[in-house]
Specification:
Blueprint: H1 15-31, H2 37-50, H3 58-72, H4 76-84, H5 91-103, H6 111-120, H7 130-141, H8 144-156, H9 163-175, H10 179-188, H11 194-206, H12 210-223, H13 230-243, H14 246-259, H15 264-280, H16 284-293, H17 299-311, H18 315-327, H19 335-348, H20 351-363, H21 371-383, H22 387-396, H23 403-416, H24 421-435, H25 440-452, H26 456-469, E1 477-482, E2 485-490, H27 499-515, H28 531-539, H29 542-553, E3 559-564, H30 570-582, E4 586-590, E5 595-599, E6 602-603
Parallel strand pairs: 3-4
Antiparallel strand pairs: 1-2, 1-3, 4-5, 5-6
Helix pairs in contact: 1-3, 2-3, 3-4, 3-5, 4-5, 5-6, 5-7, 7-8, 7-9, 8-9, 9-10, 9-11, 10-11, 11-12, 11-13, 12-13, 13-14, 13-15, 15-16, 15-17, 16-17, 17-18, 17-19, 18-19, 19-20, 19-21, 20-21, 21-22, 21-23, 22-23, 23-24, 23-25, 24-25, 25-26, 27-29
């Protein structure tokens, strides 16, 4: 709106005229969607010149409230100054400033002290609008103690049934990693809205409790009169992505298409999530269909597709999408885009392309490389056996390398049998110095270095060292979805209802693979002494149990999708290739780093991973 010039009234202006002047100013503030700070300061000056002439004027008091409100949206410190000039601010004014603090970038820590000041006022009480603002600030700052104090005040003052405050509590506890407290708040709510349901489902997703999030969603569908909206289904898609529940993700997608009315911006957001979900659930073709069917794409859409393709090692398609993004859509790539492109180069071993794109990122697009970009380049070099070049990149980095970078070099040394034992041991020491002596991954990698060199005494020494330090190897865990149900297996698992059938079928698989010439790679089972024990250890890896169960419960032509928390070992990789050939089945496996598509005895990674 155009600025309205305000001039000071003459000295003999009556109280009625002054009141009218304030009402005009109030009208300006109440009818405007936004007022610039210079204009607000001008209005503030006018109030200061005239306000003292009118005592106990409701309009003047409300005028100050609006002034604090608009200034808090632009300059919280100025709103703070106005607040300090008011002798007896009311709860509404406190709420405005607390909200301003909660939404500010730098002043969130002032929200709770101001809330405490409000509690100390003799004639004032917080209301149901106060607590969500306080909890928002506490959630952002991970201030668990202060948030719990606000929760106690909330209960003490009788706001227990309030849905809006309870939603804020769920968000607060989830942000602080207290999933049990978030669940308790939700379970004790006497009344729930769809926004409450959305809050608990989203909270569980943010905490990584994907199974529980989907259980709550099923509970919502079965026991309430609410229909999920776009925000509910966004969380369902994210939960499906987390555990590889493709069937649930497809259901959510179909529901959105049939039942949800979504605006254009939210449509892009949901479509981006669907692309990520389909990619991470091993359904790359469906991800591409969503992507190509979008009427509008933002840079995140392209990044989702590029990262998805990179995870499958589809480097040529990554390069094609990168060029389309720039030349056709006229969008500028960002830091995430180049993570995807460099990752694709790494998964395919394209050293020259990786170097070219790294230089393009810096020289053409002025993007400063971060640790993740350097990590992709170092991984690319190391896994191609260029350990010395990788170490040169490490030494030239402007930031300190983290343990992830050192682990990828150590892993490459082990897998490619390059470097010396001395250098591997030195890298292991660097990882321990970065992450401490309790990280199991470095011990496992170091033991494999020794196993590859047939130094079994040193393998045993590593195992004893782990025992002495109380370091436990992270257990392998794999899941497979059958008929819409996700089944989870740990290494050596005997808890599944089909355990007997699975182990009997593993015997059948082993016999068939022996005919094809399969022999176990004992270097992948370094923690067991005798050959028979090592073979049994490999046989019980979690992905084999998942594959066996998938074969027992799928129809011919079905794709078996396995999701594993660790990197697949060489032996299980060979096992999976042969199974795909012998049983004429397609197996898509997502390990910690990438996807593998096993078909006809071959893998999409071309044995480079």
């Amino acid at each position: 709106m155009a600025a309205v010039l305000v001039t000071a009234p003459a000295a003999d202006v009556s109280a009625v005229q002054l009141r009218d002047s304030h009402r005009r100013l109030l009208h300006v503030l109440t009818q405007s969607r936004g007022v610039s700070m210079p204009h607000l300061k001008q209005i503030h000056g006018q109030i200061l010149r005239t306000g003292s002439a009118i005592e106990d004027c409701t309009d003047t008091f409300y005028l100050y409230s609006r002034l604090i409100h608009f200034s808090s949206l632009q300059d919280v410190r100025y709103a703070e100054k106005i607040f300090s000039q008011i002798a007896n601010p009311n709860t509404f004014m406190y709420n405005i400033l607390i909200r301003g603090y909660a939404h500010s970038k730098d002043l969130k820590s002032r929200a709770f002290p101001l809330f405490r000041n409000l509690l100390e006022e003799e004639n004032l009480l917080p209301d149901k609008h106060t607590f969500p603002f306080v909890l928002k600030a506490c959630a952002y700052l991970f201030s668990l103690i202060e948030g719990k104090q606000a929760h106690a005040q909330f209960l003490k003052r009788g706001f227990g049934p309030d849905v809006y405050v309870n939603n804020s509590l769920i968000h607060f506890y989830a942000s602080c990693g207290c999933s049990e407290s978030a669940r308790k708040v939700f379970d004790k709510m006497p009344d729930r809205s769809l926004v409450s349901w959305n809050a608990i489902i989203d909270a569980l997703v943010q905490l990584g409790e994907f199974d529980e999030a989907l259980k709550r969603f099923v509970e919502l569908m079965e026991s309430s009169s609410f229909h999920p909206d776009g925000y509910t289904l966004q969380s369902v898609i994210d939960a499906s992505t987390g555990i590889g529940a493709l069937s649930m993700g497809i259901w959510a997608h179909a529901f959105i298409l049939k039942r949800c009315i979504i605006d254009t911006n939210f449509d892009v957001l949901v479509s981006n999530s669907l692309i990520e979900m389909y990619c991470k659930c091993g359904a790359l073709r469906m991800a591409a269909q969503v992507f190509e069917g979008m009427s509008r794409r933002d840079v995140n859409s392209w990044n989702a597709m590029i990262l998805g393709l990179a995870g499958y090692g589809e480097a040529e398609r990554v390069f094609e999408h990168f060029n389309r993004m720039i030349d056709v859509e006229k969008l500028l790539p960002n830091s995430v885009t180049f993570v995807g492109v460099l990752s694709a180069c790494s998964h395919r071993g394209l050293v020259n392309d990786g170097r070219q794109y790294f230089n393009l990122m810096v020289t053409e697009y002025n993007i400063e490389p971060v640790l993740q970009h350097y990590g992709c380049l170092i991984d690319l070099l190391a896994r191609n056996g260029r350990i010395d070049e990788a170490l040169d990149v490490v030494s030239g980095m402007p930031m300190k390398p983290d343990a992830v970078i050192w682990r990828c070099i150590l892993d490459a040394s082990c897998r490619n049998s390059v470097g010396t034992l001395d250098s591997s041991e030195e890298i292991a020491r660097k990882i321990i110095s970065e992450e401490g002596a309790n990280n199991s991954g470095v011990y496992v990698l170091l033991s494999r270095v020794y196993a590859s060199a047939d130094k079994w005494d040193d393998v045993g020494l590593v195992r004893r060292l782990m025992t002495e330090k109380g370091v436990a190897k992270e257990p392998g865990c794999s899941s497979v979805e059958i008929n819409g149900v996700v089944h989870e297996f740990f290494a050596g698992d005997t808890t599944h209802p089909w355990t007997n059938e699975i182990y009997r079928f593993l015997d059948v698989i082993d016999e068939k693979l022996k005919v094809e010439g399969y022999a176990p790679d004992f270097s992948q089972a370094p923690f067991v002494g005798e050959a028979d024990g090592k073979a049994q250890c490999l046989r019980l890896h979690s992905e084999r149990l998942a594959i066996a169960y998938g074969l027992l419960n799928s129809k011919h032509g079905d794709t078996i999708r396995v999701f594993k928390n660790l990197r697949v070992c060489k032996d299980c990789h060979s096992f999976s290739k042969l199974v795909s050939k012998v049983f004429d089945v397609e197996i898509i496996m997502r390990d910690r780093l990438r996807f593998h598509r096993f078909k006809n005895g071959q893998c999409s990674c071309m044995d480079f991973w």
